[in-house]
Description:
Strand order of the largest sheet: 3-2-1-4-5-10-7
Shape: globular
Largest sheet: 7 strands, mixed
Distance between the termini: 32 Å
Helix content: 25-40%
Amino acid sequence: MSNNIATPSEETTFKSYTxxxxxxxxxxxxxxxxxLFKIILDKxxxxxxxxxxxxxxxxxxxxxxxxxxxxxxxxxxxxxxxxMINTAKNLSTKxxxxxxxxxxxxxxxxxxxxxxxxxxxxxxxxxxLTSGTAxxxxxxPRFWSSAAACLKPGATVALWTAPGSYCHPSNPNAAKFEExxxxxxxENLAQYExxxxxxxxxxxxxxxxxxxxxxxxxGFLESGFTRLEWDRDGKLSDTEHFFLGDQAVTIEKMQKxxxxxxxxxxxxxxxxxxxxxxxxxxxxxxREMREVLGxxxxxxxxxxxxxxxxxxxx
Length: 314
């Protein structure tokens, strides 16, 4: 792994989402496989973590907050996008008693670099801080300092992303499909990739960690750091199934999921006259993928990387 540290650019695409886009994100992205949440919770409790307060940072519409919240007495989700938070609150009306204590999740607008909420108050600090496919947009030195101020001694920080979706090798023409997909991305979307996208795509290899900040952020020991990774570049870790689950989808469904990708959003902003037409970037991609695959349905899965940190005592 390279020692080069990347500095992410500030995210503006999701922050400026409309209500319609936030709802499309909630429906299109979904949550993560229970395998991931089980590992996070097991690692947290096995290292002395308590189950009182959860904080999900960059929570979006709360897709990852809810599966974890039911294990905690109180749960908070913060995001800089007002419409993402409005969508999260609206969805919460459909899920009463979201936490172990029967409370609803407290969603509020807040930046990762300046976390504000009841969890900053003495006696109410955080046991588990999570961030799923979001931390690559953060100003990391400020995030680590803000996180350290929110966490109890012995708390856990869990950061993860699913860098890419891949065709399961059992699919006919899987290798040709992946080759065509990669070529299409390079030729059509690569120019809309920002440093944050690159951090995620390269599995957080170059994410700035607390002891690499200048100056280092106190409260996190490198000896307490764990990195777990599955299915990198689509190569199955267990040779049979993706860690985050195998999913039978249609190319049309894949196209709908990609509607919320930030690079696709930026492409459409650059080509408003083509967005939604037969020459839309995703319509062209779907057409090419059908030609290569020779059918509409396929099995896909995602790679995953999980970074775990422990807050030291005070």
